[in-house]
């Protein structure tokens, strides 16, 4: 039997997180060691509960480890959470009214940062972290034990953007929410390969209503769930972006971590993040290497959207449904 | 603007209802009236459905006439499996019958005599009513400026059998007698060009997001149609045949046509087939223009921006972004 890739998913579910996690759990080449929760799209109690619900729904053999209740600066100062969360884009419970069953027994006692460090110590050079929320937990893990975190095999990050923002004209939500954490994480980017899947990449991957309708009709329970879970999201994308369909940002990072061939352009660059001021959360990416600074980020700039969708459909619903998809779309 | 006088025969029917909307919202037309026949659904319910579509278009002023209730010879088979028990997606709207007393055959003949060579006559349902009118007053029917039919299939698979399209198959004798009358200026717009007229889930989502009474109506009546298309043939979306004929009446550049003669089989395995002879072998038959290619993108630009004229900018943007 081939060695499975050891994965930790750090997440703030969130509709797109939920779909991304489900897809990751469908991939037999992954051994997901655990899910670590973080505040972001919603407060930590919601994101932790949601992570448990997703693990339960997928009936996956792993635990959820609760992480930071707010961003790095707030937690560091011991202040109460006063952050702005992702609002109602993700519905009241953060899962768009998917009505998944609560599963508190999926929550482990160990805190997220300890779980991450323990896992890397146990499997040095083997653990990959897929981070699809604010990077607070990973930043704290680095702060606690930098040498251990340098033994992470790879980090796949959904966040940031080079030419696009969604919280501000220049900043993406995850990176804007905790820019200090982003700064800390990319400080190990010379030792650990970090792939940044930002808005430049994800916004090429519109999952449209043809796709969602297809999943609803042909995708069984999971397809129906995805369709149901995203219906408010669809309304929001029409209102805010004048788009027919949605961008499942986090899913792009997961599918790309499994099938890197969906990426058509990846630029190994120096990346720094703005932590304050008007441009808070903006990534400053030297795509053309004009500064000759050490490179610390593999920045995804191009995605084959059709290939992305095909991989997603095949992964979640199987080869026959992909054949049908290719026929009807 | 000199408006084009037009009479439209329908059997609504989900796609007929969309054709009604397109016609009623096109100012180029002076619609003398709608003729309603049995087809997708029997004539009384079809009449209510036509009235509903006109109400939704804000054109309750247009007259509606009832026509042929049954095929001329064959036992009647409706298409409620495709269109729902009420013919428009099982929404069961409450509508009262305000149709005219005059029969649609008399209305058509009277109008053609009153405005010779001015009227575009459109038939979107089975052709029994047209055949009866033709037999009653063949001279009047020759006074139509042009006759546009939705029906038949020349070089493409049928939808009721491998060779037969529903309108011709439902009343093959009606269709045969109509073509055998050798009327001039007939154009047959059949499945060869309507298959690409696919209203996709993306388009329906956009329509839903417009969130007006009219958009909700269009979204609601097409839901059943979409489900049927998926179950029946694994098509994602629904094919809306009938509005294409109205669009062609507005913009002839949407279709290319080829001259042919048309006969209709009324019996046997090929019942309802349109036998289209592009070689024009039988010189005694009138030449019919048969539609062979279509610009479906241009059709949808016209259809959507006409029916949802309050949302032209959104529609243009969606086409520009290639989201529809």
Quick overview:
Chain A is built from 15 helices and eleven strands. Chain A is α/β, with parallel strands linked by helices and 329 residues long. Chain A has a nine-stranded mixed β-sheet with strand order 3-2-1-4-5-6-11-9-10, sandwiched between helices. Chain A has a two-stranded antiparallel ribbon with strand order 7-8.
Protein model, in words:
- The complex is a heterodimer of chains A (329) and B (324).
- Chain A has helices at residues 15-26, 44-58, 72-76, 112-122, 136-144, 146-149, 173-177, 179-186, 199-202, 209-218, 220-229, 231-241, 249-258, 305-317, 319-328; strands spanning 5-11, 30-37, 63-65, 127-131, 154-158, 194-197, 206-207, 246-247, 263-273, 283-286, 297-303.
- By secondary structure, chain A is of the alpha/beta class.
- Chain A has a single domain (5-328), classed as Inosine-uridine Nucleoside N-ribohydrolase, Chain A (Alpha-Beta Complex).
- In chain A, the strands form two sheets. Chain A has a nine-stranded mixed sheet, sandwiched between helices.
- Chain B has one domain (4-320): Inosine-uridine Nucleoside N-ribohydrolase, Chain A (Alpha-Beta Complex), CATH 3.90.245.10.
- Chain B is 40% helix and 18% strand.
- In chain B, helix 2 (43-56) links the parallel strand 2 (29-36) and strand 3 (64-66).
- The longest helix of chain B is centred in the C-terminal third of the chain and has 21 residues, at 213-233.
- The radius of gyration of chain B is 18 Å and the shape is globular.
- The two termini of chain B are 32 Å apart.
- The chains are: A alpha/beta (329), B alpha/beta (324).
- The interface between A and B is medium-sized, with 19 and 19 residues.
């Amino acid at each position: 039997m081939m060695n499975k890739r050891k994965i930790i998913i750090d997440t703030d579910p969130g509709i797109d997180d939920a779909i991304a996690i489900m897809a990751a759990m469908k991939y037999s080449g992954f051994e997901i060691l655990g899910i670590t929760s973080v505040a972001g799209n919603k407060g930590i109690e919601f994101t932790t509960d949601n992570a448990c619900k997703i693990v339960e729904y997928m009936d996956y053999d792993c635990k959820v480890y609760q992480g930071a209740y707010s961003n790095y600066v707030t937690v560091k100062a011991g202040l109460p959470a006063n952050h702005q969360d992702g609002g109602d884009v993700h519905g009241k419970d953060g899962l768009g009214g998917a009505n998944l069953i609560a599963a508190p027994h999926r929550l482990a006692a160990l805190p997220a940062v300890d779980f991450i460090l323990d896992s890397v110590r146990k499997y040095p050079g083997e653990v990959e972290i897929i981070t699809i929320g604010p990077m607070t937990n990973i930043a704290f893990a680095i702060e606690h034990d930098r040498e251990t975190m340098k033994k992470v095999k790879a980090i796949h990050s959904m966040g940031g953007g080079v030419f696009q923002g969604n919280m501000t004209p220049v900043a993406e939500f995850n990176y804007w929410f905790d820019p200090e954490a982003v700064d800390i994480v990319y400080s190990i980017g010379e030792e650990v390969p970090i792939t940044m899947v930002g808005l430049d990449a994800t916004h090429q991957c519109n999952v449209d209503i043809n796709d969602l309708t297809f999943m609803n009709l042909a995708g069984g329970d999971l397809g129906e769930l995805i369709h149901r879970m995203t219906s408010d999201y669809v309304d929001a994308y029409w209102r805010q972006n004048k788009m027919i369909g949605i961008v499942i940002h986090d899913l792009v990072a997961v599918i790309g971590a499994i099938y890197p061939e969906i990426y058509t352009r990846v630029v190994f660059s120096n990346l720094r993040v703005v932590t304050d001021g008007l441009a808070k959360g903006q990534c400053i990416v030297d795509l053309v290497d004009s500064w000759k600074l050490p490179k610390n980020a593999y920045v995804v700039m191009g995605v084959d959207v059709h290939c992305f969708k095909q991989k997603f459909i095949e992964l979640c619903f199987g080869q026959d449904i992909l054949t049908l998809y290719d026929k009807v779309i | 603007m000199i408006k084009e006088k037009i009479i439209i025969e329908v059997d609504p029917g989900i796609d007929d209802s969309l054709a009604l909307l397109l016609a009623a919202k096109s100012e180029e037309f002076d619609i003398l009236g709608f003729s309603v026949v049995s087809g997708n659904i029997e004539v009384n319910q079809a009449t209510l459905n036509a009235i509903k579509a006109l109400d939704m278009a804000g054109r309750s002023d247009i007259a509606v006439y009832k026509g042929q209730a049954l095929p001329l010879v064959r036992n009647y088979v409706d298409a409620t499996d495709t269109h729902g028990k009420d013919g428009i997606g099982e929404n069961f709207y409450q509508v009262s019958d305000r149709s005219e007393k005059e029969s649609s055959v008399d209305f058509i003949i009277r109008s053609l005599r009153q405005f010779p060579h001015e009227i575009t006559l459109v038939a979107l349902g089975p052709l029994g009513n047209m055949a009866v009118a033709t037999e009653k007053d063949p001279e009047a029917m020759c006074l139509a400026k042009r006759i546009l039919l939705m029906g038949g299939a020349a070089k493409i698979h049928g939808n009721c059998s491998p060779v037969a399209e529903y309108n011709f198959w439902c009343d093959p004798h009606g269709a045969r007698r109509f073509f055998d009358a050798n009327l001039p200026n007939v154009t047959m717009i059949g499945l060869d060009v309507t298959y690409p007229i696919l209203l996709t889930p993306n388009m329906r989502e956009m329509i839903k997001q417009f969130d007006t009474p009219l958009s909700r109506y269009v979204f609601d009546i097409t839901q059943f149609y979409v489900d049927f298309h998926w179950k029946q043939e694994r098509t994602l979306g629904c094919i809306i045949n009938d509005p294409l004929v109205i669009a062609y009446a507005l913009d002839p550049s949407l279709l290319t046509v080829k001259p042919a003669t048309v006969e209709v089989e009324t019996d046997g395995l090929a019942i309802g087939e349109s036998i289209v002879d592009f070689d024009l072998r039988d010189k005694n038959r009138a030449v019919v223009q048969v539609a062979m290619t279509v610009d479906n993108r241009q059709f949808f630009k016209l259809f959507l921006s006409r029916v949802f004229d309050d949302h032209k900018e959104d529609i243009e943007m969606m086409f520009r972004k290639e989201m529809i």
